[in-house]
Design a protein that fits this description.
The protein is of the alpha+beta class and 275 residues long. It is built from ten helices and ten strands. It has helices at residues 36-53, 75-89, 93-96, 115-119, 122-127, 132-149, 158-166, 185-200, 213-219, 240-248; strands at residues 2-3, 6-12, 17-24, 67-71, 102-106, 154-156, 170-176, 204-208, 224-228, 273-274. The N and C termini lie close together (6 Å).
């Protein structure tokens, strides 16, 4: 992700979106008849981004599925030209030989939150269509489409989803993995029981990583949602009392995430991307 004076190198795996490097610098504006200061600042900035990107622990084309240079305007195109020219000059074979793995994608910013735009790009989806990340994005997009165009076939929140499941109505269950780490044991068991029930009824269960950009989006919907086989009106409005009970579920009180690098999953060459 790159813009004027701001770049984020992000490794996107099937289970997380990890910022590997953050580069921020001040670039003076172009002035009529005196652009040397601006041009030199841009070259230093691009050089810093290139050096960080080219580190062995940041990019390895034997592991990553593709390299996506994303951002607003023409900065991404300018950096791509700089990167490839420098790779040729320095005989950086991993970049030269993997040019076909590099995609340029327009995004509204170079911040991490713009990853959702990048993952929705048609070219990116075609490149990563066989990955878990792509399936999660596609499922979430389909959910939002139903929510907007056919709201009776989309619902979210534990109470509404449980009601839908009692009618064997769930086609796809979308659930964040952090719900299974609730500090309250009965709550954890409730989510496990729900997923097993959906599978027994022929539904599909998609478990989203809370450390992935798609999981962050799902968290805004309480961490659980469902696409239904058939419309069920007023799922979330049947009983105000049970709706208030939904708010009291201790699903946000979580067990700790792993903190050491040894506990984090390693990148998978079939599933991982680099931005």
């Amino acid at each position: 992700m790159i813009d004027d004076g701001l770049a984020n190198i992000i490794l996107v795996t099937e289970s997380m979106s990890l910022v590997k490097a953050h580069i921020s610098t001040s670039i003076p504006r172009k002035r009529k008849g005196a652009n040397s200061g601006h041009d030199k600042a841009v070259e230093r900035y691009f050089s810093t981004v290139y050096d960080s990107l080219n580190r062995k622990d940041h990019i390895n084309f034997d592991i990553v599925k593709c390299l996506i240079i994303a951002g607003p305007g023409f900065v991404k195109d300018q950096f791509f030209k700089y990167m490839f020219n420098r790779a040729v000059q320095q005989e950086e074979k991993q970049i030269i030989f993997n040019k076909s793995k590099i995609l340029l994608v327009t995004a509204s910013s170079a911040h991490k939150y713009s990853l959702k735009e990048v993952l929705n790009d048609k070219g990116v989806l075609e490149r990563i269509q066989d990955t878990k990340a792509a399936r999660e994005v596609q499922s979430l997009n389909r959910f939002y489409q139903f929510l907007q165009n056919e709201p009776g076939r989309a619902t979210y929140g534990i109470i509404s989803v449980l009601r839908a499941n009692t009618q064997n109505a769930i086609e796809i269950l979308l659930i964040a993995d952090n719900l299974f780490r609730s500090a309250d044991i009965p709550t954890r068991k409730q989510y496990v029981s729900l997923t097993e029930s959906v599978k027994e009824n022929g539904g599909d269960v998609r478990i989203f990583s809370s450390l992935h950009v798609s999981g962050e989006q799902l968290a805004k919907l309480s961490g659980i949602a469902a696409i239904l086989r058939f419309p069920i009106p007023d799922l979330d409005g049947e009983n105000d009392e049970t709706d208030s009970e939904e708010q009291e579920l201790p699903a946000t009180e979580l067990l700790p995430l792993p903190t050491s690098p040894q506990q984090l999953p390693l990148p998978d060459p079939e599933k991982d991307l680099l931005y």
